[in-house]
Specification:
This is Bzip transcription factor. It comes from Phytophthora infestans. Keywords: Coiled coil. This protein is of the alpha+beta class. It has a domain of 156 residues: Nuclear Transport Factor 2, Chain: A, CATH 3.10.450. It has 11 helices and 5 strands; from the N terminus they run ααααααβαββααββαα. Strands 1-5-4-3-2 form a 5-stranded mixed sheet. The radius of gyration is 42 Å and the shape is elongated.
Length: 271
């Protein structure tokens, strides 16, 4: 063969190195699309693939439905348990109250301590708690109870309802309880109040009282009748003036607070 023809035949052969490099350079790492899979797959394999995918979707749907049913059952169970829990709470409260009612009411100290326990958060909203308070007062206090500003158990109840209305978040704390005589106990107290009431909002001094806790020192005196074994006198006093003066800083604002208010600087209430 002549040299020219041999060189021409060599020149017509493909450059396998360059082809190999092109193949490596054009390698596509992305996953195949469904169109590409359908193009290179026979019909039987394609039907089997679709069947497998459908089975997987069906299993996933079944698992999701199972989880939904489990959550629904949990919610239904919680909803059904609410009345049962409420009944159980009420039953335990009744049991606790009955146990307290069995305690010796003729004990002067017990009655004084019980007074601070039942009224520590003011007059309660729950009917069952109100019934317990009414029973406690009728058993341990004289019908013509003297409180200094009013007379009778119902008047004392009204005072506590007014206290709760004026101080919705008020809390009565017993600091100490001392015996003066066999028929007289004296208690020192703190009355804590967390936010201002409607009386103070109306007078425009909310900026000074907003979110400011107020702690008021006070005292309660219990007079006891040995014959009837009941409290015949209950005299409360709370120093609101000092606390408000410390908070507001001047007597003018303090006088505005108490002007027309249903509570006096010594903690008495006017209905």
């Amino acid at each position: 063969m002549p040299i020219d023809e041999e060189q021409q035949s060599y020149s017509n052969e493909p450059d396998w190195g360059s082809v190999e490099r092109c193949d490596r350079g054009s390698a596509d790492p992305r996953p195949l699309t469904m169109q590409e899979i359908c193009a290179i797959t026979d019909q039987d394999t394609l039907r089997e693939l679709h069947s497998l995918m459908k089975d997987r979707r069906d299993r996933r749907a079944i698992i999701q439905q199972r989880h939904i049913k489990i959550k629904q059952k949990m919610v239904e169970s919680l909803v059904e348990s609410i009345p049962k829990l409420q009944n159980e709470v009420e039953r335990l409260q009744m049991q606790r109250l009955k146990m307290r009612e069995m305690a010796p009411r003729e004990n002067f100290w017990f009655v004084a301590l019980e007074y601070f326990r039942v009224f520590q958060h003011g007059f309660p909203d729950l009917d069952i708690s109100q019934a317990h308070i009414s029973n406690f007062m009728s058993v341990s206090m004289s019908p013509d109870l003297n409180t200094g500003t009013c007379s009778g158990i119902e008047a004392l109840k009204q005072n506590w309802k007014l206290f709760t209305h004026v101080f919705p978040d008020g809390r009565l704390q017993l600091e100490s309880l001392e015996k003066l005589t066999d028929e007289c106990l004296i208690a020192t107290t703190n009355t804590c109040k967390g936010r201002c009431d409607k009386e103070e909002r109306k007078l425009g001094i909310i900026a000074k009282l907003k979110d400011q806790p107020i702690v008021m020192r006070g005292s309660v005196r219990f007079d006891w009748d040995k014959t009837s074994k009941r409290i015949i006198g209950l005299f409360s006093q709370t120093d609101m003036l000092t606390s408000m003066l410390d908070l507001l800083g001047n007597l003018e604002d303090v006088s505005h607070v108490f002007n027309g208010a249903r509570v006096t600087p010594d903690g008495s209430f006017s209905v």
